[in-house]
Automatic annotation (TrEMBL):
Monomer. Forms a complex with RARG and the SRA1 RNA in the nucleus. Residues 286-387 form the Pseudouridine synthase I TruA alpha/beta domain. It comes from Erpetoichthys calabaricus (Rope fish). This is Pseudouridylate synthase 1 homolog. The lineage of its organism: Eukaryota, Metazoa, Chordata, Craniata, Vertebrata. Belongs to the tRNA pseudouridine synthase TruA family. GO terms for molecular function: RNA binding; tRNA pseudouridine(38-40) synthase activity.
Length: 470
């Protein structure tokens, strides 16, 4: 069959480029693979390809179980192959392979979802669908080097290391997804640093919806890491990009706010009403959009990404645990940079204790370099993440769930009381991290210029070098 005859055999397609986007089912052309097949032609009699290139990541057919027919296309097909070569295979079911064309949705359009080769899926998982979900994750960060996994590095254990291991052991994901997390579209909503905990972390991923999935995952997790909830989301959902805001809490002993001239600077201190009001007044100054280049590292003053929007920040009423008085500071913002929250709190502590004037807050948002102390990471907790825009669009459409986690609130609070708060309190009492950090405040020069700060750093380095040589 010549190229001209072949073109004339096409039904309703002007050229091979257009025809290459279609396959045949029951004598009808269906949209399929757009740019992948550069010259595949479809007719009511069969499929012909002149030169087809395929991606190994393409999965199979959406219409599994249907009386489809096709060919097992290779990476390149000879132009001399004729339609008659395929007509005898018309009534045979499709053999799904990695070289198959993309999955079609119910309307015959190319789907964004691709399925793995059925031969690679265990018998137990074949009956379970692979779906995009979010997991509500809570953990105590002590003993872990942050949230994010470093594939190939076993030196520093992270929260995601234990989570991925539990997902594999419970049968939710195949083994190879543990080493290549992109295969399951894994995305964390927020990164947490070493020792930082979370009560409402959210991760999005694709997994097999096995029976009793939450219970089976938790069975393979340590007690300080738990899945508290699971919900289905849209196929293109990304927990980091869809998040509107994040709420963090910071738990600290109240003696951190004791003025430096007071005699009581330990667990016997109790914060008074006036001091608490001052703390809240200073924290409220952070509300709005400010340039926080001084509250992180490697950000230039005129870098647009240094500007962040803070919705609210306040300090709750004090409470006593193990003979020590604590307060919890809460801050909600669109997003935060590394160390930003700890430095925001550290600067307020320095002002309340009398090491810096209140004007330092305004100064810190300017272009001038300001020396800002970073509070310990022990008390920092990712409390909640917010998906207000997503909930408004999909939460009430009758097809998707709202990501507000109201039904899981009791479990979240129970995890805080059972794992997060006790760990913070016990560690503070044993290691005295806040007291040790407070002793470093006098060495900070809050009025120093950038040149002064650099000079002091160089002097300190010289002293260290000279000390090592002695």
């Amino acid at each position: 069959m010549t190229s001209t005859t072949w073109r004339s055999a096409l039904t309703g397609y002007a050229d091979l480029q257009q025809a290459s986007r279609c396959l045949v089912r029951g004598g009808k052309g269906e949209r399929s693979c757009e740019k992948t097949h550069v010259a595949c032609a479809a007719t009511p009699e069969g499929v012909r390809a002149t030169e087809c290139h395929f991606s190994a990541s393409f999965g199979g057919w959406a219409n599994k179980g249907k009386d489809l027919w096709s060919i097992r296309m290779t990476s390149k097909m000879s132009e001399e192959q004729h339609l008659s070569d395929f007509q005898s295979n018309r009534n045979e079911p499709v053999k799904r392979t990695k070289e198959c064309v993309p999955e079609l949705d119910g309307d015959g359009n190319k789907s964004k979802k691709f399925k793995r080769d059925e031969e690679e899926i265990g018998d137990e998982q074949k009956k379970f669908p692979k779906r995009k979900v979010v997991l509500l994750l809570a953990y105590s960060g002590k003993g872990y080097h942050g949230m994010q996994r470093n594939v190939g590095s076993s030196q520093f254990k992270t929260i995601e290391d234990d989570l991925i291991e539990a997902l594999v052991k419970s049968g939710c994901i195949p083994d190879n997804h543990g080493t290549d997390m992109k295969k399951m579209s894994f995305q964390r909503c927020a990164r947490t640093d070493k020792g930082v905990s979370a009560a409402g972390q959210i991760v999005s991923l694709k997994l097999w919806l096995i029976d009793d999935i939450v219970e089976k995952i938790n069975k393979h997790l340590p007690s300080q890491i738990q899945i508290l909830g699971l919900k289905r989301v849209t196929g293109g959902f990304n927990s980091k990009n869809k998040c509107d805001a994040r709420t963090y809490m910071y738990m600290l002993p109240t003696f951190a706010f004791a003025h430096k001239d007071l005699e009581i600077q330990d667990e016997n201190y109790r914060i008074n009403k006036e001091t608490l009001e001052k703390v809240n007044r200073l924290l409220a100054c952070y509300k709005g959009t400010h340039n926080f280049h001084n509250f992180t590292s490697q950000k230039r003053p005129r870098d647009p990404s240094a500007k962040r929007y803070i919705m609210k920040m306040y300090c709750d009423e004090p409470f006593i645990r193990e003979g020590l008085e604590f307060v919890i500071i809460k801050v909600k913002g669109q997003s935060f940079m590394m160390h930003q929250i700890r430095k925001m709190i550290g600067l307020v502590i320095a002002v309340v204790k009398g090491y810096a004037g209140e004007s330092i807050l305004e100064k810190s948002w300017g272009e001038e370099k300001v020396d800002i102390p970073k509070a310990p990471g022990l008390g920092l907790v990712l409390d909640k993440v917010h998906f207000e825009k997503y909930n408004k669009r999909f939460g009430s459409d009758g097809l998707h769930e709202s990501l507000d986690w109201a039904n899981e609130e009791e479990r979240v609070e129970a995890f805080k009381e059972g794992h997060i708060y006790p760990t913070i309190i016990k560690t503070e009492i044993e290691e005295k991290s806040m007291r040790s950090w407070l002793s470093t405040l006098p060495i900070h020069d809050f009025e120093a210029s950038a040149l002064d700060i650099q000079s002091k750093k160089e002097e300190a380095q010289d002293e260290e070098v000279n000390g090592d040589s002695d």
